[in-house]
Amino acid sequence: MTTDQYELEFVGDIPPESTIPNLAQIMIISKDQSYLTHGIHKFPAKFFPELPRYLIRRYSRKGERVLDPMCGSGTVVLESLLSERIPIGVDIDPMAQLITRTKTKSLDSDKLESQSKKLVDQIHQAYEDSKQSPSIPVFNYRDNWFRPFVLHELGTIKDAIDSVTDRVSSTEFRDFFLVVFSSIIRDVSNADPHCTRTVIRKKSIRNIAVGDTISKFKDALAKQLQAMSALATSLQLIDNRKVILKEESATAMNFEDNSINLAVTSPPYINAVDYPRTHQLEMYWLGMIGNGPLSTMKRNYIGTETVYKREYDELHYSGLSTLDPLLERIFVSDPRRSYIVYKFFEDMKQQLKETFRVLRPGARYCLAIGSNMIRGVPVHSHEILSEIAISPETGFELERSFFSGLIRHFIRIPRKERMSGEWVLILRKPHQ
User: Fold this and answer.
1) Which among 35, 217, 239, 243 is least buried, having the fewest CB atoms inside 10 angstroms?
2) Burial degree of 84 (CB within 10 A; 0-12, 13-18, 19+)
3) Pairwise CA distance, residues 231 & 234, whole Å
C-alpha cells in the first residue's frame, strides 16, 4: 500500500477529537519513537507512542485508570502517565516489568548524575586492576555468545553496579543502571543484531574491540541520563505519578470487577516474537532465569511456541468460522504450527474475557494487532479476535476498527523501510 492510498495521514500526534471512520486506512508518521525514556531499551514489536497516546486521550479522562494487560516495554504505561491517567501495566515477562518500571520512574537528576559518576569511576578502577576477577554468570553456550574480553568487561560493569548501588538505599538507581547495562548486551554479543531471535550468524558478527563494551555502556549511560532528566522535567507538573505494575498473567489479573476505565494493548504476534528467547542473554546476565530450562518459562506466555507433541497429534478446532478453516490448512503441512495458532487464540479468548470482567460498563478495550503468514496461510488476526470478542461468551461490541500504517521516521522514506501496520479494534463493554 502506497502513501497516497491512505485516507488519513497524521504527522506526529493524532488530535484526540479526531474520529477515525470505521474500516479507514490511516498513516501515522512517527516523531516520538525515542521521546523521553521510550528509547531506553530495545524491545521487539513496540508500539509507536502516537497511536496509544491518541487512544488514551480519546477514550479516557484525566485521573482514570488505564490498563495495558500485556504491557511489554511500557509504551502505554508511560503515555498514560504523561496524559495524567493512572497507568496499570501487567506482564508476565520479567524484562518487560524491569524496563517499564524504570522508564516510568522519575529520578532526582542531580542524585542520579552523582551516582553515575561514582559508577563510571568504579568501572575504570576495577578494569585497570589486573588482579580484579569479575563475576561472570554461567549459562549454556555462554562462550559462544561472547568473546572472553567482552565477558570480562560485562562482568566488570555488572560488579560495579552491584557495588555502587549496594551503598544507595534507592532501588530505582539500581534498576536504571541495570536497564542501561542490559541495553548494550546484545550489541556486544555474537548474536545477529537484525534478528528478534537470539542466533549467531557468522556474517553478522560485529567487530568488537577490547574496551568497546565499557565505552558503549558509558555512551548509553550518558544518553539515558539526558532522557531521565527530560522525563523528570515533564512529570513536574503532574501531581499523581502513581504507576501500578503487576508481574502476572494477562488471562488471570488481580483486579476487581468493573474497576478499569480503559484498556489498550498490542498483543504478541503468532509465530513472530519469542520474547524470552529474544532477551535470553540479557536475562542471564540479570539473573532472571533460574536453573530450569528456558522452555519452562516460555510455556506460560501467550503466543508460546513451547508445546508438547501429544498436544498436536490431532487437529484442534476452535468453533470459530474465521479460524477453523485456517487450522485445517496449516495442519496438513505442519500439525505443530496449527496447534500453536489454535492455542494463541484460545489464550486470547481468555484474555478478552478477563479484560471484559475488569472494565467498567461502557469502557473500551483497544487492541492493535497485525496479520501473520503461517506456512503460506494468511492469518488475519483482527478478524478472528473480532469474532471472539463479540461472541456471547465474551460479550464485547465492536464499535469500529481501522488499519494503521506506520512510517519509522518523520521524514518520508521508501516503502521497504516502512512497517506494514496493524488493525486497531475498538471494543466496548455494553452498559448492563
Assistant:
1) 239
2) middle
3) 5
